[in-house]
Amino acid sequence: MSDGVTDALWPAPSPARKRGPRPKLSVEDVVTAGIAVADAEGVAAVTMQRVADELGAAKMALYRHVRGKTELIALMLDSALGEAPETKGENWRAHIGVWARTMHERMSRHPWTTELVVTRTVPGPAEMGWFEAGLAALARTPLTGAERLDTLALLSNQVTASVRQAVVAANPEASLAAAMAPILETYGSRFPHTVAAFSETGESGGQDDALGFGIERILDGVASLISWRRSPTDSK
Amino acid sequence: MSDGVTDALWPAPSPARKRGPRPKLSVEDVVTAGIAVADAEGVAAVTMQRVADELGAAKMALYRHVRGKTELIALMLDSALGEAPETKGENWRAHIGVWARTMHERMSRHPWTTELVVTRTVPGPAEMGWFEAGLAALARTPLTGAERLDTLALLSNQVTASVRQAVVAANPEASLAAAMAPILETYGSRFPHTVAAFSETGESGGQDDALGFGIERILDGVASLISWRRSPTDSK
DNA sequence: TAAATTAGCGTACGTTGGACGCAATGACAA
DNA sequence: TTGTCATTGCGTCCAACGTACGCTAATTTA
Fold it and tell me: Quick one: DSSP state of residue A57?
């Protein structure tokens, strides 16, 4: 039932008991150090050893404040997301747009978050806050509950994916185009459309507004569903 | 430059030389065994040791056919994707829809693929084939090269995400709704819209067609861009 | 038959995450 | 003040991981 992570993300108000030596470390310290390591060297570098070094403590000291690495990672993710923006108001499209772009900005600051949303299970308070904010923005639309959830999933997937893409594009060696280039040079004849699409884009050009494109396309799609809901006789 | 993975995914035609003992194992054997393990126990269980056991061989024997675990994983992914469907024709929407749904079906058969697309860099032949097929479906649209690439990214992200979601929903303990339920029971008052959305959906109902919803919304969005491209005076 | 090449694999090592228990600390009861 | 004992930090130990290295045996080629 409990994997322990839930308790850590949603801590019961502590009994405020004090006895024994004054703690030099706190959960926040550990999480902050973990985030610092991840920001600097990627999530793969987040080792109990490495985090402990960052704090000038011994590896096993961390286990007093964090049940294990899984829990540490979960706490780091929730902390990195931060608080969701306010999204109450009439214009659903504007608000959900802000929601998505704010999320993009937040994740861009901690690129490693994109690697974690894949594995994560239990949502923490921050993530729940984002959920709530997104649903609030869609509150006045005629969408069903399931459709609202699906819309949020759609948008957050797009945000995650475009952050990931931007990160990868940052170091030119790992870019998709760069990875494909040598392959296309040899096997290009087998992939004419691919060659065409990339050559049309120019090589360095297409400073991709993949985020903007994706969000606008999705919101267009949702908008057309909404307007159809409101008056089914409208355009197809 | 070469991380070695490229050479493995795009093998040069082998010199067909033969000397020394007859190989009991082949690259395909290793990759197949790896896929079998991943299918049965998840990608985390794919250990060199575990794969070797699967083949009745010693751990170090694998390294004769695969440069390392990274390479093995890359080969597994490309192999699991398989060949892309034919997508030539007039009706772009129908073809790209089939493309997305086929991809969904393919990945659903090997759910662990969703965990790998996050990390992967160099595309293999199969993935390139999917790329090419997707672009072929969009060939007759008035979209620019960059827009076509963005559209494919949008769709494949959605496919990946919904496969992941379906997998998670398969074992009820890990479902998002199930994970949220106990939290909402305690802190529900802080998340009224979330409670509303989930209660409206019913508890077991909403047998989510998240895939369908997402794809249709995206295609609606792309369609509206396309029709605007064709005649900018049309509907907004 | 001898030389050359190659597949399989045994050994060894560094790095992980984590169980366990000891020693120092310091709030409380006496 | 003095003992009690919960709590913190951490040293030790271990299993599991990926993989470098080199030996042995099989097989082709000369």
Answer: S
Best of A117, A141, A193, A236 to disrupt the B interface by mutation (most B CBs within 10 Å)?
Answer: A193
Nearest to A157 by CA among B193, B160, B98, B213: B160
User: Consecutive 10-residue runs of chain A (236 residues): their mean pLDDT?
Assistant: 69 76 93 97 96 97 96 96 89 94 95 84 90 94 91 92 80 70 92 92 58 88 92 63
Kindly state whether A219 is in contact with chain B, defined as any CB-CB distance less than 8 angstroms.
yes
Q: Is the CB of A23 under 7 A from strand C?
A: no
Spatial distance between the Cα atoms of A167 and A164, rounded to a whole number of angstroms: 5
Closest alpha carbon to A225 in A157, A148, A156, A158:
A148
Q: Tell me the C-alpha distance between B215 and A221, whole Å.
A: 10
- Positive or negative torsion for Cα A190, A191, A196, A199: negative
User: CA at A49, C1' at C14: how many angstroms apart?
Assistant: 14
Q: DSSP string covering B86-103, please?
A: P--SS-HHHHHHHHHHHH
Report the alpha-carbon distance of residue A25 to residue A62 in Å, rounded: 8
